[in-house]
Write a structure and sequence with these properties.
The protein has 13 helices and 13 strands. The chain is α/β, with parallel strands linked by helices.
């Protein structure tokens, strides 16, 4: 019977970019088995037609007072909104995504008679753009909130190691991408052979402090003969001043994949990550990946085996300059094999269904 399905409430403040892609895959793979509602906040990167990406069975409730940063007045209001939603909906499972939703959700929702699950998708206390004091406060909040009986899910091995320091009730479920869906989405795109004589470099995501646009710009300045593209938008766009950088703004999914396909190298200059979906997609599409040495990136990329890890500007430049056909055809083959074998959403979704059903 339809009404006997377990009810899942997903709470998500960061409803855009990688978290959005993650939710689309998870929800659309579980909506037949569970009755699903998404309580969401709107961000600049939330696409206007977001409902079109989800099954018609999925219900949506907007949390009007969700904000990205700490805002005591709005956070209290958001907590009250979620309390009300939970009271009316009576979910069996509440699954929270990102630090803000995890904090507000655990304050608002009692674990009695229901299961609480929290995916940080990159802990806020790892954010390098905040002061040491602020990060200490974020970590203290996370520690205090472990009073709620809640399973913390690290989306990479590195995030899981951080989660274990906070709570014994932590598990690791690697992020994965929906390979069948990606095949459909890239149908009609001619797989691009790497053009070693005319390399093109891209990245994707919000142009904010986390993604380190200053480093991206520095790399472009040092490699003036290579074309760089940033797929996305953000408040630090003014840091991308190099003449060989194109900023596309936010694009529909199909266009994002088209641009990614047209490039040879995918780089992530991030200061911190959870486990970036954009990186997994680039690896599957056989792009040469050069990434910063942070949690998430280094959980996927093994240096000189399936991509490259760089610790600073000079290493990024050196690794891009030294890219050569003999080496990198093997690297991109292995990168794609790793996605198919390990970072495939079929694997992760089975583990989430198991977690929901326990």
């Amino acid at each position: 019977m339809e009404n006997q399905k377990k009810k899942i409430l997903h709470i998500v403040e960061s409803f855009g970019s990688g978290v959005f892609t993650f939710l689309v895959d998870l929800v659309n793979a579980t909506d037949k088995e569970f009755d699903i509602t998404i309580a969401y906040g709107l961000r600049d990167e939330t696409i206007s037609n977001f409902r079109d990406y989800f099954s018609e069975r999925v219900k949506f409730i907007r949390v009007e007072n969700f904000t990205r940063s700490i805002n005591p007045k709005k956070d209290i209001k958001a907590t009250k909104e979620i309390k009300k939603i939970v009271k009316e909906l009576k979910p069996d499972i509440v699954h929270m995504h990102s630090s803000k939703a995890g904090a507000v959700g655990r304050l608002a929702v009692n674990a009695k008679n229901r299961k609480l699950i929290y995916n940080p998708h990159g802990f806020s206390f790892l954010k390098q753009d905040d002061s040491k004091l602020k990060r200490f406060v974020y970590k203290a909040i996370e520690k205090v909130l472990t009073f709620r009986k809640c399973t913390i899910v690290g989306c990479s091995q590195g995030e899981y190691e951080e989660a274990k320091k906070l709570s014994k009730n932590s598990i690791c479920i690697n992020n994965g991408i929906n390979i069948e869906k990606l095949k459909e989405e890239t149908q009609g795109l001619e797989p691009k052979e790497i053009d070693y004589k005319n390399l093109k470099v891209c990245t994707s995501g919000r142009i904010g402090y986390q993604k380190n646009p200053e480093l991206f710009n520095g790399i472009a300045e040092k490699l003036p003969n290579i074309k760089f593209t940033w797929i996305g938008e953000g408040d630090l766009k003014n840091k991308l001043t190099a003449k060989n950088i194109t900023v596309t703004g936010w694009k529909e999914r199909k266009e994002v994949l088209q641009i990614l396909n047209d490039n040879d190298i995918f780089i992530l200059t991030s200061l911190w990550e959870g486990l970036p979906i954009s990186l997994l997609e680039a690896m599957y599409m056989k792009k040469i990946c050069v990434v910063s040495n942070v949690i998430g990136n280094r959980d996927v990329i093994k240096d000189s085996k399936n991509g490259y890890i760089a610790n600073n500007l000079d290493e990024f430049v050196e690794k891009i300059e030294n890219i050569n056909k003999k080496l990198d055809d093997n690297i991109t083959d292995l990168a794609q094999k790793d996605i198919i074998k390990i970072f495939n959403s079929d694997n992760s979704i089975k583990q989430y269904i198991n977690l929901y059903s326990k």
